[in-house]
Amino acid sequence: MRHRWSLQPRRRSAGSKLGALVAVAALAAMTAACKPPPAARHDFDPAAVERGREVVAAAGCAACHAFPDIAWPKGRAGPDLTRFDGYGPIAGALPNTPANLAAFVRNAPAAKPGSTMPAMPITRSEARDVAAYLYGISDD
């Protein structure tokens, strides 16, 4: 007996529909968790971003890191921050949030034990401004 092909859609069981919905929901959740929403990354006061740039220059951060708007020095001991945009974990371990970034910038060994970045002689307020500056680099 020959099989006749039908143009009508096959009916799926409730279980297979539920499984497909769960798979789609899981994929959407994983995708959303990969990157913070753009609005959350760019809500910093421009004055805080500029103060952060000034702190970075005064604290000598460019001795170890390269920055897009600091001409010299262009350090190579730490990661190049010319394209820092807030993605990925901080130091490969910490969730990349403004609070975690400020804590890491101020005292990396306390924020992530074993970090080779030294504690910096900056205040909490200055560390928040540096975080704003680092998140703002992607806007340049």
What does it look like?
- By secondary structure, the chain is an all-alpha fold.
- The protein has one domain (38-139): Cupredoxins -  blue copper proteins (Immunoglobulin-like, Sandwich).
- The chain is 46% helix and 0% strand.
- The protein contains six helices and no strands.
- It has helices at 14-34, 38-41, 46-59, 98-106, 108-111, 124-136.
- Helix 3 (46-59) packs across helix 6 (124-136).
- The chain is globular, with a radius of gyration of 23 Å.
- The termini are far apart.
- The model is unreliable at 29-40 (pLDDT under 50).
- Keywords: Heme, Iron, Metal-binding, Signal.
- This is C-type cytochrome.
- InterPro entries: Cyt_c-like_dom, Cyt_c-like_dom_sf.
- Residues 1-28 form the signal peptide.
- Residues 47-138 form the Cytochrome c domain.
Give the key terms.
mainly alpha; 0% strand; globular; Cyt_c-like_dom_sf; C-type cytochrome; 140 residues; 46% helix; Immunoglobulin-like
User: Ends: how far apart?
Assistant: 69 Å
Average pLDDT: 77
Count structural domains: 1
Number of strands: 0
Order of helices and strands: HHHHHH
Number of helices: 6
